[in-house]
Amino acid sequence: MYTCRECERPINQASEICPYCGSDLTTDLGESTDATDRPALTKILLRWSLVLLPILAGLWGFLWFVLPEQRGEQAARAETSAREAMSEVRLALENYAAARGGSYPPSLDVLGDAARGPARKALSAGYELKYTAGTPNAEGTVRTHTLLARPANYGYSSFFMDETGVLRATRERRQASAQDPPIR
To answer: Could you tell me if 106 and 92 are in contact, meaning their C-beta atoms sit under 8 angstroms apart?
Structure first.
């Protein structure tokens, strides 16, 4: 029985090329030509690429989902849009309260387009505006409220504003609150 000197599989003794691995069997073992080295090198490179490509693809996918989104110009534009939307809603709330003896509305729906437009603007920038009216007093007037801008993207700032008009923010993974530092 005759075997291939490259893959060591049984072959016909008269074969000039191995039917399994494609080695040229006409050259002597002592001869080392570039033609015989290339198939072996090609096989080695092919095997390593078949091992390394899935590992690198898995590592890339892992890092894509684990690492936080890089802050940049896009984040700055989104945060600016959210702050502007909060200021516009605050102005509409103040106008409403001035016309109603200092009482804020129970929801933003009462303000109509004065609140819907800025809310859409914030939403298109990746922020959700959330208004919460305070508890009514004995006369039924609402003297307090909170306005939150919550980001949909990780790494963006979260904003908080109440009836004082002071804008506060945090970059932590939570809603901003009255305890966060003011910004301007």
So the answer is: no
- In angstroms, the CA 146 to CA 160 distance is 7
- Contacts of residue 62, defined as CB under 8 A and 6 or more positions apart, other chains included, come to none
The amino acid sitting at 76 is A
CA distance 172 to 88: 25
Rounded-to-integer distance, Cα 40 and Cα 42, Å: 5
Q: What is the pLDDT of residue 24?
A: 86
Q: Which residue matches tokens 């200092």?
A: 102
Q: Residue 71 has what pLDDT?
A: 55
Task: Identify the sign of the CA torsion 171, 174, 176, 178.
Answer: negative
Task: Please give the pLDDT value at position 31.
Answer: 54
CA atoms within 13 A on the CB side of 5: 13
Low-confidence ranges of the chain (pLDDT < 50): none
Angle of helix 113-124 versus helix 73-99 axis, rounded to 10: 170
Provide the sign of the torsion angle of the four alpha carbons 12, 15, 19, 25, taken in this order: positive
3-state secondary structure of 12: coil
d(CA 169, CA 148) in angstroms, rounded, equals 10
